[in-house]
Amino acid sequence: NAGVMQNPRHLVRRRGQEARLRCSPMKGHSHVYWYRQLPEEGLKFMVYLQKENIIDESGMPKERFSAEFPKEGPSILRIQQVVRGDSAAYFCASSSTGGAGNEQFFGPGTRLTVL
Amino acid sequence: TQLLEQSPQFLSIQEGENLTVYCNSSSVFSSLQWYRQEPGEGPVLLVTVVTGGEVKKLKRLTFQFGDARKDSSLHITAAQPGDTGLYLCAGPSRGAQKLVFGQGTRLTINP
């Protein structure tokens, strides 16, 4: 299966803990996007990365959230000191070339629950 | 800020009926995409419309892009229970590398 892979699919954390979400893009894709979805809502852009570079992080909260896409390995979205409001589904998408005009393909998501 | 408004937000109809959902904006988009999302899964791309006035068909689904590229519609003929899901429209944000999403239309087709 050459689709976008995300893990874990479900993650439960207590307030104050750290959450690490992983995303492996489709084979041949070097552009990764992270989105967040609250219940019964559309997706909200968080961050766009290429290998080793953050291109656009305009949708990501300035504190507690960070993202990386290293030369080797998956992209990581890291949330430090989680709060209940961080509970949401986090989706990763990838594209073969940069820019939102190119079609993005989504993974199955990680559902984060903060107790 | 470019916004996409979808209507209706919720729609529940009987199998075999026809329906149309709408995606509207006051802004021009270079293209619009439609996704379907099932519970517990990620959005799956259905179609991309690029040219104003363009019509694309995917079996019983017909997608149209408005002439001014500010709106789009999805029409389903003879809806089936398998069409149940959350339908999302999205478009590229001008000058930025991200998709702007509508809030979605949750469609339920009753047998």
Average pLDDT confidence of chain B is 94
SSE pattern of chain B = EEEEEEEEEEE
The helix content of chain A, as a percent range, equals under 10%
Number of helices of chain B: 0
Order of helices and strands of chain A: EEEEEEEEEEE
* Mean pLDDT metric of chain A: 92
Report the oligomer.
heterodimer
Largest interface, Cβ cutoff 8 Å: A-B, 30 and 27 residues
Major pleated sheet of chain B: 6 strands, mixed
Helix segment tally of chain A: 0
Low-confidence regions of chain B: none
Principal-axis shape of chain B: globular
How does the SSE layout of this entry go?
The complex is a heterodimer of chains A (115) and B (111).
Chain A: E1 5-7, E2 10-13, E3 19-24, E4 31-37, E5 43-50, E6 53-56, E7 65-68, E8 75-79, E9 88-95, E10 105-106, E11 110-114
Parallel strand pairs in A: 2-11
Antiparallel strand pairs in A: 1-3, 3-8, 4-5, 4-9, 5-6, 7-8, 9-10, 9-11
Chain B: E1 5-7, E2 10-14, E3 19-24, E4 32-37, E5 44-49, E6 55-58, E7 61-65, E8 71-76, E9 85-92, E10 99-101, E11 105-110
Parallel strand pairs in B: 2-11
Antiparallel strand pairs in B: 1-3, 3-8, 4-5, 4-9, 6-7, 7-8, 9-10, 9-11
Quick take:
The complex is a heterodimer of chains A (115) and B (111). With 115 residues, chain A is mostly beta strands.
Kindly describe this structure:
The complex is a heterodimer of chains A (115) and B (111). By secondary structure, chain A is mainly beta. Chain A is built from no helices and eleven strands. In chain A, strands 2, 4, 5, 6, 9, 10 and 11 form a seven-stranded mixed beta sheet that branches. In chain A, a hairpin with a 6-residue loop joins strand 7 and strand 8. Chain A is globular, with a radius of gyration of 13 Å. Chain B has strands spanning 5-7, 10-14, 19-24, 32-37, 44-49, 55-58, 61-65, 71-76, 85-92, 99-101, 105-110. The mean pLDDT of chain B is 94. In chain B, strand 6 (55-58) and strand 7 (61-65) form a beta hairpin. Helix content of chain B is 0%, strand content 52%. Chain B is globular and about 45 Å long. Chain B is built from no helices and eleven strands. With 111 residues, chain B is mostly beta strands. The A-B interface holds A 4, 6, 31, 33, 35, 40-45, 48, 55-56, 58-59, 91, 93, 98-101, 103-109, 111 and B 4, 6, 30-31, 33, 35, 40-45, 48, 88, 90, 92-93, 96-104, 106.
